[in-house]
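Example for tutorial group B:
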């Protein structure tokens, strides 16, 4: 039986200067609720319920080619081994001139993706959308996991190259760090120009944890936090991204088994469709 592919419209080979979907089904450090490892195929299956055309953007995927490389089939069992395999997969996309578009899996996958991208780009901004800051220095005795991933990313790119949105959960120490380094930004209608000025025409890497959305419209996450973004605000942010130079992105932390209605998986597919259309 053939494996599902996103919207059934794709190339199975990397296309130069176009996004290449790579499933990263990692779920080793999740806490409270797990299940993000089955998200990549669930999103592909749910994509069959949506159209290739996006009315928000007035664009159709028929005019914007992309590739779907399937999921990484991990051969290693430890976290370190699996992160190495993700980094190698992303490096292969970059070597062939493509743009990595990784679908998780837990948020920890962002670290090896950034490690790979830094070999090809050295002056980029990380836009991080999330309910949680993920800035702990360690969590449950580990320095690399879903709660520390952005702190590890900052060690690679510098706090001046991090902009966070939607954060509404974290420790006192994390929010003290956020306030000290001024990495938090607000996004609402009319603020697009100010954000463009902050990015200052640099290249952009986008890391999107789907729990940035309010659980009333997106319940299928491991650690839901009330008070998040609406879907319409997400689409407005994606329209804003049409104006920036994206070099890579990830969409993470969907947990399909939690939302039996499949609305979270379908919504994730719509978000991915929109992101493909602005890359």
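The residue assignment follows.
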């Amino acid at each position: 039986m053939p494996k599902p592919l996103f919207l059934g419209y794709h190339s199975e080979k990397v296309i130069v200067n176009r996004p290449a979907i790579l499933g990263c089904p990692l779920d080793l450090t999740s806490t409270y609720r797990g299940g993000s490892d089955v998200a990549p195929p669930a999103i592909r299956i749910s994509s069959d319920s949506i159209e290739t055309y996006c009315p928000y953007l007035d664009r159709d995927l028929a005019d914007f080619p992309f590739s779907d490389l399937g999921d990484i089939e991990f051969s290693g069992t430890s976290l370190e081994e699996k992160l190495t395999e993700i980094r190698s997969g992303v490096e292969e996309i970059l070597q062939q001139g493509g743009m990595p578009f990784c679908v998780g899996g837990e948020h920890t996958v962002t670290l090896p993706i950034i490690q790979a991208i830094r070999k090809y780009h050295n002056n980029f901004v990380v836009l991080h959308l999330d309910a949680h800051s993920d800035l702990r220095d360690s969590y449950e005795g580990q320095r690399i996991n879903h709660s520390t991933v952005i702190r590890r990313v900052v060690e690679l790119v510098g706090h001046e190259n991090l902009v966070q949105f939607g954060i509404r959960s974290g420790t006192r120490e994390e929010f003290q760090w956020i306030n000290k380094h001024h990495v938090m930004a607000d996004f609402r209608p009319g603020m697009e120009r100010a954000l463009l000025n902050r990015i200052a025409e640099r290249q952009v890497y986008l890391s999107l944890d789907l729990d940035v959305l309010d659980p009333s419209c997106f319940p299928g996450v491991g650690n839901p936090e009330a008070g998040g973004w609406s879907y319409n605000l997400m689409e407005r942010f994606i329209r804003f991204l049409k104006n920036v130079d994206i070099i890579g992105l990830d969409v993470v932390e969907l947990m399909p088994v939690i939302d039996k209605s499949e609305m979270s998986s379908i919504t994730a597919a719509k978000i991915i469709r929109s992101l493909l259309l602005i890359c």
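The two ends are 31 Å apart (CA to CA). Compare this with the pattern of hydrophobic and polar residues in the output above.
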